[in-house]
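Supplementary Text 2. Reproducibility record for the structural model of the 346-residue chain.

All settings were left at their defaults, and a single model was retained for analysis rather than an ensemble. We include the record here because the model underlies the residue-level annotations in Supplementary Table 4.
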Amino acid sequence: MLTLAELSQQATISGGGEFDENIWVQIETLRQGRTQNDKPFFDLEVVDANGRAKFKIWSDAPAYDKCRDLQSGDFCELSGRFFINNFGLNVSRPTLRGLGDGEIESFLQGSPAAAKLNQENWDFIVGVCTALKEPRLRAVSLLALKSLEKKWRRAAAARTYHHARRGGLLEHTSQMLRGAVALAPLYPEVCPDLLCCGVLFHDAGKLWENDYPERGFVSKPSRRGELLGHITMGVEIVNRFWHEAKAADGELFANAAESELVRDHLLHLIASHHGEMEFGSPVTPRTPEAWLLHYIDNIDAKLEMLRCTYAEKSEVVPGLFERRPPLAGMMAAPLAWSLAARDKAD
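Retained model, structure tokens:
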């Protein structure tokens, strides 16, 4: 069964052609309205783990009466003949069926490949943190992972630009951590344990700012996220687990001056990871680990934006895609992609 992103991509590739498909979705909003000619309809906005879409359900559609019984948060199977036009993804003669409890659980877990990737990413993060040699950083990291596992495995890394989906923060963090493990040994000024711990916690505030409910794909703004922001909350989270780890094992923190030095450096990584004050960081990077963390974060975010461009946008001309904000200008297809297309044509 296709996701919304895959459905949109297939509709784009079809070049205006129509195809029958069944998809599982969660209703985000459902609003009844009428045209100027008094024709009734429902505006239906749906989401899944990878995207969202809007459809108009007209009064002559089989799904229209079912819409009367549905509300925000319900899980459904949407079936019909899908196509794309100037207004985006559309469906003709749609039908809607509510999902059963077993289907909902399967839907929330994602495809077998997605569930496998989520577990692999989680195991990798736990493995890296378990191997940290600095005992205070190791204790704080493992305590936070144990306490916040469910949130860490479902939160998004952003709302729109990159990894803006359920489980996106885990993908982003694990990929950044792979980059940190690879790059840290190349720079003798960098403390690998500090860098890895900074990667783990740099977006920890998004566990609240971009959280998802346990049963759903709709991430709603939170009061704490809007009033404080993820950087401020990240500092708060580290301080919380630092003090909990200290209370659990005082011997690890017996050298107070050294412990405070390590904590200050860790907090600096969170506070400075956006790189510039105009982008939300209260301070700019001042340490080797802070600079490396900032660029690793930026690299992974930008490459994810490129992947989304290739998946979501159409080619204006062969090898050149429509602009997808916030990237400037139209993005070009990767060289390997271009060469494969050439070889296929030959």
